[in-house]
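Need a sequence for this fold. Nothing fancy.
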């Protein structure tokens, strides 16, 4: 009998939701507030930015197709007023913006891509999809009571919004995939991925002060929550007594605004509130730009005012690295000195050194020796006053410029890495400065030379004159001469 009542209850609820959706469409609103089994949508070729598919009851948030570039598609939840994405279904890969790409609900939310078939799926057996006024996308089972089978709040991307639980089995990932935020036993921290297939490096950490309650070991993991009162709180068993409060600028101010926390592409963790027309920065974890993971790129040097390169011979260019980031390390080949060049620089320091391990050595030479004979070491920074030797077991990122000349950096650079960079820069500068004309002249001269040589050889054959200086060279030598002439 109970099963029959539950079935009738679910049937009535489904009918009511379907009737609501039909009436909404008749009233002239094309975007529904719930999705039922059988729903199907495809990308509209004429849409240039966002195609809404589902709205929350307030109209503040919308689920839809977000166009990325010309050819790609992301299923996203947006803050409508600012067009700011708050959640993406599959941020590491994007579907194709094509009329053959389908988004449908058959108990699961599914994206079917023409190249990969099932591109993404929630793998559920639900009755309806709703977008709450918190921006949380849910798949619900219309039992008595209604149960939530899946929700987007459990799968954050780079953003946390008000009252969204962030637990120990979740990660915030920056949009470029380089940085992450995770919870520990009594802290939350930021990590950088400097190298594939290697451990992430912690570069910022906030430990619970336990000002209001204590963390009890064995009583469950902590979780974080963006509180509408203007802070990021850490909790253990409930949201009533936070064990830690990280206040924002709006902390305890009587404002009714939408808050979010986002892990930015530069690795900083920031909080914002929407003031009705703009996102206002409310908090940032790292206030000193030079303490970010790599503000000046690889082999860069950061000062509070500007960026430069560790190698003074290389000019810093915004948006590019001083020396290209190498994808491998020195353990993939025999470690001999002729495989790399050594770059040294005084007055440098490792950022976030408080979170790094170090060796204590008696001299700079001893510190350099530890790195020289270790294939996984890319460089080292030695402090002459303390004897601390910081070994860098990842491709060299931005270093911090300091006034203390006794801080010495020792860095390995793959042989020719910097030279290739300088050649490329020289060619770009040549073309930009009118060098294209010189190149054309060089090409014309080369082909004039080739024609002259052909006629000379023909004459030589006819007149049986002794060969010129290049006549009897082997084919490889002839090729090298042609290349040399072309380079001239």
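Here you go.
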């Amino acid at each position: 009998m109970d099963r029959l009542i539950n079935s009738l209850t679910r049937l009535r609820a489904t009918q009511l939701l379907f009737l609501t959706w039909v009436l909404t469409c008749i009233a002239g609103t094309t975007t529904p507030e719930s999705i039922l089994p059988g729903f199907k949508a495809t990308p509209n070729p004429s849409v240039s930015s966002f195609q809404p598919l589902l709205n929350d009851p307030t109209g503040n948030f919308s689920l839809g197709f977000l166009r990325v570039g010309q050819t790609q598609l992301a299923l996203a939840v947006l803050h409508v007023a600012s067009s700011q994405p708050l959640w993406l279904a599959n941020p590491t890969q994007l579907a194709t913006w094509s009329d053959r790409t389908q988004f449908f609900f058959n108990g699961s939310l599914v994206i079917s891509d023409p190249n990969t078939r099932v591109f993404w799926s929630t793998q559920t057996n639900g009755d309806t999809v709703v977008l709450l006024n918190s921006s949380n996308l849910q798949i619900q089972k219309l039992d008595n009571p209604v149960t939530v089978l899946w929700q987007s709040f459990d799968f954050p991307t780079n953003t946390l919004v008000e009252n969204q639980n962030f637990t120990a089995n979740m990660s915030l990932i920056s949009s470029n995939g380089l940085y992450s935020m995770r919870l520990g036993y009594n802290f939350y921290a930021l990590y950088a991925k400097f190298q594939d297939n290697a451990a992430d490096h912690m570069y910022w950490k906030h430990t619970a002060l336990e000002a209001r309650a204590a963390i009890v070991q064995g009583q469950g993991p902590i979780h974080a929550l963006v509180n509408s009162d203007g802070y990021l709180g850490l909790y253990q068993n409930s949201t009533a007594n936070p064990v830690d409060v990280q206040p924002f600028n709006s902390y305890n101010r009587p404002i009714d605004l939408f808050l979010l926390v986002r892990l930015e592409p530069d690795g900083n963790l920031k909080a914002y509130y929407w003031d009705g027309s703009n996102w206002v920065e409310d908090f940032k974890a790292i206030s000193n730009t030079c303490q970010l993971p790599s503000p000046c790129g690889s082999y860069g040097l950061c000062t509070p005012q500007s960026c430069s390169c560790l190698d003074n011979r290389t000019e810093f260019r915004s948006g590019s690295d001083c020396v290209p980031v190498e994808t491998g390390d020195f353990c993939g080949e025999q470690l001999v000195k002729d495989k790399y060049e050594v770059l040294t620089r005084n007055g440098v320091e490792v950022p976030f050194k408080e979170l790094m391990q170090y060796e204590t050595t008696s001299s700079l030479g001893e510190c350099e020796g530890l790195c020289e004979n270790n294939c996984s070491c890319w460089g080292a920074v030695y402090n002459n006053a303390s004897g601390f030797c910081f070994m860098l077991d990842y491709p060299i990122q931005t270093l911090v410029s300091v006034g203390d000349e006794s801080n010495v950096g020792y860095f390995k650079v793959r042989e020719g890495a910097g030279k290739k960079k300088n050649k490329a820069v020289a060619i770009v500068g040549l073309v930009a400065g009118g060098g294209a004309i010189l190149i054309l002249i060089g090409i014309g001269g080369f082909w004039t030379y080739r024609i002259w040589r052909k006629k000379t050889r023909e004459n030589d054959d006819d007149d049986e004159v002794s060969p010129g200086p290049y006549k009897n060279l082997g084919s490889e030598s002839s090729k090298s001469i042609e290349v040399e002439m072309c380079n001239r």
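For context: The CA atoms of residues 433 and 484 lie 23 Å apart.
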